Amino acid sequence: MSIDGNAVTGDSAAAKVTGAPGRVAEWVRFGVAGAPVSIALLVVIWLVAFATSSVIGGPSHALSQHVALGIRAFEHGWVWTLLSAGLWGDDILAYLATTVLVFLAAAPLERRMGSARFALAAVVTQVVGGLLALAVAAVAKVVDADWGFRLHVGMAVGPSTWIIGAAMVASSDMGTLWRRRIRVGVLAFTITLALFSGSLQDVVRLAAAVVGLVAGPWIVGRSARGERIAGTQREGRVLVAIVVAASAVGPMIAALSAEAVGPLAVLRDLFRGIPYTATEVRELCEVNAADPECRRGLLELRLSGVGPTLLSLMPSLFLLTLSDGLRRGRRFAWVGAVVAQVVLLVLSLLNFAVRFIDSFEEESLFYGLADPNLYRTLVPFLTPLVILIVLLATRRFFDVTAPAGTYRRLAVALAAVTAGLAVLYVLGGLWARNGFDHRPSATTLLANFPERLIPPVYLQWLDPRLLPVNVPATLLYEWTGVVFWLTACALVAATFLRPALGADSDAAARARALLKSGSGSPLSWMTTWRGNNYWFAPDDTSYVAYRVIAGVALTTGDPVGPPDRLRETVTEFAEFASTNGWIPCFYSVTSAVRAVTDDLGWSGIQVAEETVLDLGTIAFTGKRFQDIRTALNKAKKSGITAEWVSFPSAPLSITDQITAISEEWVADKGMPEMGFTLGGLDEVDDPEVRCLIAVDGDRTVHGVTSWLPVYRDGKVVGWTLDFMRRRSEGFRPAMEFLIASAALKLEAEGAEFLSLSGAPLAKVEQPDRDADAAEQAESSSLSTVMDSVLDLLGRTLEPVYGFRSLLAFKSKFQPRYVAMHMTFADPAALPSIGNAVGRAYLPTVSLGQGVRLVRTMIGGRRPGR
After folding, report:
1. Global pTM?
2. How does it sit in the bilayer (predicted)?
3. What's the CA gap between 766 and 326, in Å, rounded?
């Protein structure tokens, strides 16, 4: 029986009964056919597991001596353990995890790489990674005798080694987005395990990842995208969030793993202690309160038990919460993460001071360690320092602020939760007062309450005011802080889910409401983007979006508001800017604004050319539209269709492909995405923006365009093209197909026109209009010079951003051309205005990118595809 989606051959009744099993069987056959090496290795792993009775608890000690990787095995000459170690697991969970990894990672990687290359990658990373790990174990014994000894006597088994190694090898031939994600994710995961858990198998996994990273180009070659790592701000946030999350998970691993032995496992002592009972501590202290053992008992009592352990983990959980905010680019999350790392750094320094000083004493009480040393005390100091440096270096990524009042409400909510818990703690303590080592008063309980919110390890210099001795008192004493931190994490996480429209979210929301209820130009939706400030007319019927750069108030498109108030709006905004000491400049405005400013005696030059498709009678017929018809026909033959989606609500399978296509495009240029009037993924992530994607029958996205609404009298009358990206190895005429499809679909919906947006620093030569422009510019030689400079800049930047090629591409649709202007009151300010425009489009160009930009312009060739 076979099932192909259209017909069922064989008995139809049987097909209905066995349809699901049949699909599973078909999926398994596909896996076996496409990934024979992975499936064969999985079968072997399970067979040897059953044959050696290793399924439940892993290989026996006697068997491990001969199949597990370890220094002792090598001392006996059992070199085959380099390979055999990858065929056993530690327990049933390891075997089940291996099965999942083979189907979700190894098999897809093999189908991508080819079976021969996959087998080579698995063997090389397993063998060379094992040798590298043993070398690390030998060196570790010199640096850290305790960890080195554990590695020396340890034995390692696990198929995850060659799976991780193969993934790192395969990443060399992947697109930019997934190459970065796999490498950062795998390295963060393996480094965290090696540093905190620290078993020999953890070190072997890390070594295999490093070997795969180095050997990848020789096994599978390099990606056509090259090794460029330039990416968008959005992807940078994801990578930083991964690193910060790994730093938070590490201490949790150390705290929850009884066998953590890594160099950072010392942080486990921040969370756990010897399980003294309250009765034992009380009896010790009754004999001699000054006895160091009494003090030790009090400290370790605070660290023992489930409640104190969870409370000690809460800062790490809070840091994980902040990581989600970092992923979303939230400024609050960045500030919170920086503060957290500074606190950890200070505590690490105190740790060093106290432990190193105490090491000269006969007794060391800090963290209950008997053998503090300089190395194991300094290592934890390095972790927050590195994370802090990463956060400070990427500060510009995190510029998203929550709507006004969000954190005021958060503070009120946290204050209410704290007050409520304080009342409950005092009332509960009075009710269970006999459950403490001495009967507390309401005042004592209230004074003790703040300590209940602090992780126990940070209270080691304070003597406990009271200790619980029965179950109700223990629950109250140990779990009040856990409830507080969990609530705080939930409240903070909720703030990250609130939509943010810009630095002043209230003003942005107000502007968006005015735009949707009024009228604007084809570029007016760009005024709602982050980075803009807003000036509102006194009658609150219109506004101007602007940004102040180097003393220039640079606007984004036309003022938004009633057309009959355009002159008043332009004049009042200019006065507002001048009052603040700024140079007013209207950028990318229509001829209507140009006419107003010309009447005011201002100067102006054309800076872009907008292309407009008038709908209603559009038909891509005739010789002029040959390329468009060819794209539509090829798409139909290839099974590619155009589909509307909203990026915020689209399936992850679609948004991830769009993100990958965009990241690849940016990385190919080696330059950051331009901003200002050119949108990226952040601007696409808006429920009001529509995306038209080109997808095939396998749901592979070949191209994507985004369309911004154009309002007139509160109704959408047109759409403006903004975001355009095409898969490098996908359907080549994807853009022609998508724009033509958008025109046909939106015409059917009743739209009046499509704006294909403007091409900065590019224009169509039209003699009549050029003559008019020249005549207008005669009164200002500086304007003429600036026009020439912009023309030169457009030609110079063409190899990098291709604005003129973009304009030529849009001419395929036979559009109507509309000039876009820049107008300014003082021609003498043109140097400052030119600087402001450049910084608006490229606000984050690094020195290296600047050098690359100049080199590309001089070379006159276009980077990437």
Report:
1. 0.63
2. Multi-pass membrane protein
3. 49
